[in-house]
Write a structure and sequence with these properties.
single chain, about 900 residues, alpha+beta, Uridine Diphospho-n-acetylenolpyruvylglucosamine Reductase, domain 3, eight-stranded antiparallel beta sheet, seven-stranded antiparallel beta sheet, 30 helices, about 35% helix, EC 1.1.2.4
Length: about 900
């Protein structure tokens, strides 16, 4: 696509749809949209439109496509990787006027927003309600939710709360044809591939986001902020590594070197020394008041041990706000030091931070340029800002050479090309250095599924010496070829094979592919189908890369959960996943997106998987992601493959984020007189500032139990137990509090309630938490009508409900069908032999059906992998 003068007829059609004032074509107006915050390069669009509704966006896309124009979406233009620069002119769709907060549901902890809502404005709206949208990029006073989603933005507080993808539940998208669809409806764990995770961080290349359902996080009861001063940025980085290694997970650990201090010191009355080398580490912890000072004291002691010479607490909210405003204003204040800066965004394993800071200092000296270091140290996310004068060609060259030197060293130390700002046009040429040709082709295949004409944001993310279409075509050609010579080594259909190594599995998969045989990946010990070859990962065990001080581990896919926990325990670490069978393999848990009660406090498995090693349908090995805690290098294929049930590839290794073992824990088990009383207790609990890690509801045989688990500092745990049992008393419940072995036993029995039992039926329902009580009534009434017995276990604050159903098989089938037609996300997980369901077992939303199909066909064109795991049945 090339830039053309704005066609008069197209302009008139756009004005008819959006209104004359919402269509900009004058050269002066277009120059406002010719670059983003990076100023890397500028190029004006041919036309700018300012829609206010999703349908206006859709119609603009349809009209631009008919005219053959490139289409670039833009939020506030605060990006610094050139992601919103319209390199090929065309139509720019600014979402700035799509700034409505459409709905807020505090019980479900979600909000529905348009993409032009400013991050800080959303948080200002939520604060009186006691909630926040946790991602807080430094640009949050200007950046929009749509832009945050496009780059999977992070921010200072994502050390504790995670990046944007951890807080987006669903998005509405306008596709390349101008059609609108939702990737979900905001419930957790709906069937199908994780299109929400795929869209997040895709930089506007897979569609235009026109609305989002975002997760809300309760505001903490208490916050502590301390500025620790160090003699050098290297010393501060070493202290950060030591804090993480000691098992402390504060809310934030942010570094500002002496140049950053100089930029903001006077404007924000920080009163910090500006001597060369002096570096400030901003430490924040938050949570319930109880035990918070002890947590901060432990971190401060580590800082002192690593050379902190001054500690300055920000004792009141106003001072804390001033510190954070100063930190987030550094980039904007660089004008005090230099005419411009070149920002390098990269992430390394946290233990590599001191080495990286030493390297930056060497580059500073070698090239004779000043560098301002301000970065998210707790995540290993570096942001060296190279200060230079863009009018001086030699300074421009040296600035780019320093940036290249930082990125090269980052990649050599296990880092990634971008942590939170995206690839844009700035880092396209680094993609082949990070990805193998097969990996780039896989990313391009995703691009081609959602952007087949290349209309959306062209010339971004991918190397400039080729095109996504060419890369996707190369992969498609590879997968179309089938050589009988290679296929001759394939086993007979129905075979069960457990290769000794992933390399042997790759050879086997290649043979099966060329022989036209289907393959079913498994972590188990039995053949799965007489028509396919079952390939098991059961021989692959143990750690491949374990970095305890980084809180990350990579294990072979056949490693069981019990084995993983045993590896982590000597380091006082854990994976907070509780399942009925701890002898299941990590690969199978990831492939099925296994769920556990503690997701309330720690997040879901999808949030902990950092990287996957995968064999493609023809045995080609690819790596998805990296063993770092932030990464926006290409599309988030890790989330796409998590929960894909072996339909896209065979997982051979998994890299995970792990957690410190909490110092204390306890569970209040509260028996309530009725389901209504139990729901009232749960509703009351949801409005408090308590932070339980699990809230489980169990009901069967007339018993109604609410179990609340708390973990952390002993004082915080004791506070939780005291207050939740007071709630139980208020609602006429009885209770007991368990800890230690008794607590472990209780949770083992609880998760066993939704484990696989071959002679029973197990259903899983997903609903908005605000509909939890009404859903329980629906479940009970349907059970009475169909004459079945139901044992219910639910993650009560998350809206996930498991039903173990017993009774006549025909009655169970009718019960399943009734729920299926009433509750959109009803899945049949386990059924007895010869059970014949009346409706789809998946409960797949029809809005994503054709996209799921398109992805499967593009990635596995011959339906080689797990072909019986059918995601594609329409609802009846």
């Amino acid at each position: 696509m090339t830039t053309t003068a704005a066609p008069t007829a197209l302009v008139e059609e756009l004005r008819a749809v959006l209104g004359a004032e919402a269509v900009l074509t004058t050269p002066e107006a277009l120059l406002t949209y010719d670059s983003d915050g990076s100023m890397i390069v500028s190029h004006p669009p041919d036309i700018v439109v300012l829609p206010t509704t999703a349908e206006q966006v859709a119609e603009a896309v349809r009209l631009a496509n008919r005219a053959g124009l490139a289409i670039v979406a833009r939020g506030a233009g605060t990006g610094i990787a050139g992601g919103a620069v319209p390199l090929r002119g065309g139509l720019m769709i600014s979402t700035a006027r799509m700034d409505k907060i459409l709905a807020v549901d505090t019980r479900s902890r979600l909000a529905v927003v348009q993409p032009g809502v400013v991050n800080a404005d959303l948080n200002a709206y939520l604060a009186p309600l006691g909630y926040q949208f946790a991602p807080d990029p430094s640009s949050q006073r200007a950046s929009t939710i749509g832009g945050n989603i496009a780059t999977n933005a992070g921010g200072p507080h994502c050390l504790k709360y995670g990046v944007t993808s951890n807080h987006v539940l669903a998005v509405e998208v306008v596709d390349h044809a101008g059609s609108r669809y939702w990737t979900g409806d905001g419930v957790l764990d709906q069937s199908g591939y994780d299109l929400t995770g795929l869209m997040t961080g895709s930089e506007g290349t897979l569609g235009i986001v026109t609305a989002a359902i975002v997760r809300l996080t309760p505001l903490p009861e208490a916050v502590r902020v301390v500025l620790a001063l160090f003699p050098s940025v290297v010393a501060a980085a070493a202290a950060v590594s030591a804090v993480i290694a000691a098992g402390s997970l504060p809310t934030s650990l942010e570094v500002m070197d002496h140049n950053a201090i100089r930029a903001v010191n006077s404007a924000y009355s920080l009163g910090l020394p500006e001597t060369t080398g002096t570096t400030a580490l901003i430490i924040e912890v938050d949570g319930v008041e109880d035990g918070l000072d002890d947590q901060l004291d432990q971190i401060i002691a580590i800082c002192r041990d690593h050379g902190a010479f001054d500690l300055r607490p920000a004792r009141d909210p106003a001072t804390q706000a001033r510190v954070w405003t100063a930190r987030k204003s550094v980039a904007g204040a660089i004008g005090r030091l230099a005419p411009a800066y070149y920002l390098v965004d990269t992430v390394v394993p946290r233990t590599k931070l001191p080495l990286m800071m030493e390297h930056v200092e060497r580059l500073r000296a070698e090239y004779g340029m000043e560098v301002c270091n301000v970065f998210h140290a707790g995540d290993g996310n570096l942001h060296p800002l190279v200060l230079y004068d863009p009018r001086d060609p030699d300074q421009r060259r040296r600035a780019h050479d320093i940036a290249a030197g930082v990125l090269e060293r980052s990649l050599a130390n296990g880092g990634v090309v971008s942590g939170e700002h995206g690839i844009g046009l700035e880092k396209c040429e680094y993609m082949p250095r990070f990805f193998s040709p097969a990996e780039l082709q896989l990313h391009a295949t995703i691009h081609h599924v959602f952007n087949p004409t290349g209309c959306f944001n062209p010339a971004k993310i991918f190397p400039t010496d080729t095109t996504p279409a060419a890369l996707a075509a190369a992969r498609a050609e590879r997968l179309q070829r089938r050589d009988p010579v290679h296929g001759a080594a394939a086993p007979e259909p129905g075979a069960f094979v457990a290769p000794e190594t992933p390399a042997a599995a790759a050879v086997l998969m290649k043979a099966c592919y060329h022989a036209g045989l289907s393959v079913i990946p498994t972590g188990g010990t039995m053949a799965r189908s007489p028509q396919a070859v079952t390939i098991s990962t059961k021989e692959w065990h143990g750690p491949l890369v374990y970095e305890p001080d980084d809180l990350t581990i990579k294990v072979a896919a056949g490693t069981t959960l019990a084995e993983l926990q045993a590896l982590l325990a000597p380091h006082n670490q854990m994976l907070p996943l509780d399942v009925a069978d701890p002898h299941r393999s990590i690969g199978s848990l990831v492939a099925t997106a296994a769920d556990g009660p503690r997701r309330l406090g720690y997040g879901a498995l999808r949030d902990w998987v950092l990287a996957l090693d995968v064999l493609e349908p023809d045995g080609e090995p690819v790596r998805l992601g990296a063993q770092v805690v932030k990464n926006v290098t290409g599309y988030d294929l890790v989330k796409l493959y998590t929960g894909s049930y072996g339909t896209l590839g065979l997982i051979t290794a998994v890299a995970l984020k792990v957690f410190p073992q909490p110092p204390a824990g306890a569970t209040a088990i509260m028996t309530m007189p009725t389901s209504v009383a139990a729901c009232a207790l749960i509703d009351d609990l949801s409005t408090t500032r308590l932070l339980p890690t699990a809230v489980e509801y169990l009901a069967d045989a007339g018993a109604f139990v609410v179990a609340v688990r708390a973990e952390g500092h002993p004082a915080a745990v004791e506070r939780h137990m005291r207050e939740v049992t007071e709630l139980a008393h208020r609602h006429n419940g009885a209770w007991t509090v368990v800890a230690g072995a008794d607590e472990t036993s209780f949770w083992q029995q609880t998760v066993a309630r939704y484990g696989a039992v071959t002679d029973q039926t197990l259903l899983r329902l997903s609903v908005w938490p605000s509909r939890f009580a009404a859903t329980l009534q629906t479940i009970e009434q349907a059970a009475r009508r169909q004459h079945v017995e139901v044992a219910l276990t639910a993650h009560a604050l998350s809206g996930i409900i498991y039903l173990r159903v017993t009774g006549d098989p025909a009655a169970i089938a009718a019960y399943h069908a009734e729920l299926y037609h009433t509750i959109p996300h009803t899945r049949l997980l386990v059924a007895p032999p010869h059970f014949v369901p009346q409706v789809s077992v998946w409960g797949l939303s029809p809005t994503t059906l054709n996209r799921v199909r398109a992805l499967k066909v593009a990635i596995d064109p011959h339906n080689t992998l797990n072909p019986t795991a059918v995601w594609f049945a329409n609802r009846t």
